[in-house]
Amino acid sequence: MTIRAKLYIAILLTILGPVVTIAVALHGMQRLGDRFDEVQQRADQRALALDLKFDVTDFNGWQTAYGYDNGASRPRFIASVREFRRDRAVAQRVLTDPQERRNLREISTRFEQFMALDDVAFAALQRGDAKRVKQIFLGPELRLFDSMATSAQDLASYESRRESATETTFDDSREDSRRGLIAVALGAALVIILLLVTASDIARMALDGGRETREAELE
């Protein structure tokens, strides 16, 4: 390869090098940004599923409590139910794939049955029928709670798996970006080497030309 060709190639690579570097970096940053947003979304969805699981356990516990303290804890039960309804409304808006909808539908169906029986139990409590209250709380209400808790756990496990898969994808994207930047860095190193070789050839030509000129003058 002639020195002129080397010089042209070096100039071309010098121009293209920064362009390619910027393009690779921007592409990598965009991919990582998208993946990070998805990781955050999955984490939020998992947290929401765990909130529902906690809510179900919480209002069931307060229901049991008011059954044993003659209704003193019922305001706490009502507040817990209200919190569950708020979280469920958010979940129904955010969790929209078939598996999520199925779990939420199961939870909602059992919850409505649970609350209908709670009305019966509270009426019995107000009549002083403690035996009937315990029959409801320790029988059908307990089974409905178990069903809701199972569905809530299934939902939380599903969201946890999705979060883990998204984190793996994010890690893969980060590794791909790192490899791309390494490849660009190696290309830049080759450009530098080519420039050094070309500069060395030019310097050698200049020295040879100077020596030939002096020899001609001596002759």
What this model shows, in words?
The chain has 219 residues and is an all-alpha fold. It has helices at 3-68, 74-94, 98-127, 130-138, 140-218. It is rod-shaped. The chain contains five helices and no strands. 94% of the residues lie in helices and 0% in strands. The two termini are 33 Å apart.
Which structural class matches the secondary elements?
A: mainly alpha
Give a count of the beta strands, DSSP E runs of length 2 or more: 0
Order of SSEs, N→C? Answer: HHHHH
Cα(first) to Cα(last) distance is 33 Å
The coarse silhouette is rod-shaped
Structural features:
219 residues, mainly alpha, 5 helices, 0% strand, rod-shaped
What's a concise summary of this model?
By secondary structure, the protein is mainly alpha-helical. 94% of the residues lie in helices and 0% in strands.
